[in-house]
Amino acid sequence: MQGIQRPTEQIYSNYTAEDFDVWRTLYDRQMGNLTDHVSQAYMDALSEVKFNRDEIPHFGTVNEILGDITGWSLKVVPNISPQKDFFELLARKRFTATCWLRTMAQLDYLEEPDMFHDVFGHVPLLSNQAYCDFFKGISDIALEHLDDQRAIELLGRIYWFTIEFGLIRENGDTKIYGAGIISSAGETKNCLLPETERLDFDVRTVFETDYRTDIIQERYYVIDSFNQLYDSLPEVKSVLEEILAED
After folding, report:
1. 52, 140, 142, 214: which could join 87 in a potential S-S bond, CB 3.0 to 4.6 Å?
2. What are residue 223's DSSP bridge partners?
3. Number of domains within the chain
4. pTM for the complete prediction?
5. What pLDDT sits at residue 3?
């Protein structure tokens, strides 16, 4: 992927017929995979941001919608942002998102996150206030430790097992809310298999759990609500400081 020049702003007229085909194909496939398995909170959020199969989301419109609901907005980036930029923008309620789409030949696997992951996976729940409060809270903690790589690594585990690969209980069933699952057919199928390890969300246990980005996940953590995540922030901060003091 190195050497490919990615757009730094969304110019809607630049989207090709293939781009619309990719969005439509991925949207249809994932909506089929997610039926009965995704959080109702995500489905409600999908309606809030007015995503549909036939239209690649227009960032200007999305920003207007999110701005009215939670005050968040999207910031176009060409690829994964440096940690400092990422957390500083999140603390200002700005989510970094790419605006380019994978090709039809890359439907099943892409080394770097594209717009389908960033936007379909992450953006709808930016209309959920409790989710956003947790998101910003993690970013505020990260800002206090930007020069400490160990702290950022540990906070990355909290982010990974919640925002990216989190599961949630709804009406007695385990449902999906993590963007990395929502945007991936493989993760969607894997996370709810009977043999897949699912544990109750616990701050210290998550801090002790490493992860890999290049494989289907082997463990997932389940929350009871987004309010539980938000309420865990003081513990995240205190346990992080304990671990750093012990290192």
Report:
1. 142
2. 168
3. 1
4. 0.93
5. 52
